[in-house]
Structures
1.
Amino acid sequence: ADQRKNTQSLLSKLTGRERQVLERIVAGRLNKQIADDLSISIKTVEAHRANIMEKLNVNTVADLLRLALS
């Protein structure tokens, strides 16, 4: 229960757009697909991904997925 609360606390730090990008990362979408979905550039997706990983204090996409799915 504590870990779930901690995860929710971390996820609450994300902006709406970062949450949209995270949802698509979790769904297995590629950066180009995410960019097309959200009508943004691939560079912007990469920036959001970097911000998400920094805010959630993870270093790998595997860790990001583990956290998001917990």
2.
Amino acid sequence: VKTKDAAMVISQADLRTRLLRVRGTTFIQLFSTTEPKMNKTGNPLHGLIVKDSTTNCIVGFDYTNMVDNARGRELSVEVIEACKEAGISIDILAQFSAEVKTMAKDSAEKFTASSRK
């Protein structure tokens, strides 16, 4: 695990524990070293080569929440546009903007990812 201070060598169990402790959405970069199988009969390089990989990841991203929030924003924009077309003043709309967004988010159809049950 590479932190702002230095890279650390940790086990898979330690990595899992650290990732489960993350709160909120965070970008991380993982550096891993694995030993390729290369175990064909008579392979002279078997056990001598390692594969280094770098992976950029997003940890703690809640796709379901993102979709629900986007749907709420879309609906609130539609409601505000309809009110403007109906002749309601912008000052009155500004006063109730937060309430409209909350109502739109609450009443929007909820998205459920297939992995959640």
3.
Amino acid sequence: METFKVARKGVYQNDIDGEILESELFCLDLLKITDPAFVKDLDVAQMEALSADIREFLIQSTSKTGGHIGPNLGVVELTVALHHCFDSPEDKFLWDVGHQSYVHKILTGRANRFDTLRQHDGLDGFPKRKESEHDVWETGHSSTSLSAAAGMAIARDIRGQKYHVLPIIGDGALTGGMALEALNHIGDMKKNVIVVLNDNNMSIAPNVGAMHNVLGKLRTSGKFKRAKKDIEAAMKKIPTAGDKIAGAAERIKDSIKYLLVQGTFF
């Protein structure tokens, strides 16, 4: 689908919460987009309509060429929102893994090449610096965007520049050791990095690992629940300070649990 239209003023309904949004009718040929700056001028209803049309364009295009359709359908609204709020290529978008960059490619003027996607001398399936100034970093493996962001932030500050560095990473890729090490390093350096977490509870495969499995079994076991209850009761029996000690122990337990299981780096 090459053009999209926003519903006439007063009759557009938000798919998420059913809210009626007002917007003027307008049309845009996706194949004629040359720069993402136009997204900044769109209202919410227009961005919703743009997202819907991009989604249909992706389905039709990849049905002919192949490609990573799932990850891209999952980041349509996210990508539109990023281009609405930030200034690419001055602000640096770092797509972890990279196969979810199709929407970014459309908004940066490459929709007219999607018929060559992943073909010889055609549009690449991943960000490529030779392809566009908006592709500031080349990817192909998961959990690497945060390390790249750390390096870019250091270089930016040394040069006295002011642009934003935005690694976009999924909840699955965030379980990678390289991502966690980089996140720890970024926090220690106190660098200005905006980590965009695409927390959609989806990845190419279920999360795995001994820590994930053992902690999950432990927290749901009957013995653990009974021990927790008995220890809490014993603490509360301590004269004067019992309730405070029990409360402090509960907070410590929650801190450890969320750090290891839920990821309170965010």
